[in-house]
Amino acid sequence: MAKIFSSSKENGEYWISISDMMSGLMMIFLFISISYMISVIREKDKIKEIAVTYNRLQNDLYEDLYNEFKNDLQKWDATINRQTLSVRFESPDVLFKLGSSQLENKFKEILEDFFPRYIKILMSEKYKSDIEEIRIEGHTSSDWATQCPPDVAYFNNMQLSQDRTRSVLEYVLTLPSIADHKDWLKKYLTANGLSSSKLIFLPDGREDKDKSRRVEFRVKTNAEKRIVKIINEAE
């Protein structure tokens, strides 16, 4: 009889131990699940912060540029792209003579009006610390003055587009109205000839040769660096 009770007692202690172990495992799984949920929430918050940081800077700068130049864009035959923050001058006859890198007088007048106002926005306290590069980009069509292989036309247009952007850079840096900012501009203002690498196309897929011949002022911000910083701090 004593053996029966002893065996029953041992079995009870055994099942109690199993029950305690299962309870412990459940707590561990619950802890892991909660930790995972917290990690997911933090990841979502991090992604949201990154998106907000990037979009706020891009949108604010676009709005300030558009509000400053909206009354001039039509007479300049210019546009402002929200995604790339590019101010694009699209009238090739106004910019340069065909095959020439010498600025037309009309384009000089436009630059004298546009560039000081443009730089005033970029150098404001709101954006100055976020500027990584101010790019003057020269673009051409795929054509060249004489019939020649596509590669030769590309290389010739590369030289032409580089000469044109250098002409623009030299002109704006000699404007009396930006003399006080010249040292800062030399650090951030660059001339970039891109030949026919970024053509503009018509709706039917054909090259728009006139629109492809253009000059763009495009600002690059350090939003990417700020995003990397947010990611590193969150890890």
Structural write-up:
With 235 residues, the protein is of the alpha+beta class. The protein has two domains: 2-48; 50-230, 60s Ribosomal Protein L30, Chain: A (2-Layer Sandwich). It contains eight helices and five strands. The chain has a five-stranded mixed β-sheet with strand order 1-2-5-3-4. A hairpin with a 4-residue loop joins strand 1 and strand 2. The longest helix has 68 residues, at 2-69. The termini are far apart. Mean pLDDT is 84; it is low at 1-5.
- The end-to-end span amounts to 64 Å
Task: Please identify which CATH superfamily of the largest domain we are dealing with.
Answer: OmpA-like domain
Mean pLDDT reading = 84
What is the CATH third-level topology name of the largest domain? Answer: 60s Ribosomal Protein L30, Chain: A
The unreliable regions are 1-5
Radius of gyration: 31 Å
Can you give the helix content as a percent range? 55-70%
**What is the level-2 CATH architecture name of the largest domain?**
2-Layer Sandwich
> Strand-and-helix sequence, N→C?
HHEEHHEHHEHEH
Helix-and-strand structural type: alpha+beta
Tell me about the largest β-sheet: 5 strands, mixed
Topology:
Layout lengths: L1 H68 L3 H4 L1 E4 L4 E4 L2 H4 L9 H18 L8 E9 L10 H24 L8 H7 E5 L15 H4 L1 E8 L1 H12 L1
Parallel strand pairs: 3-4
Antiparallel strand pairs: 1-2, 2-5, 3-5
Helix pairs in contact: 1-4, 1-8
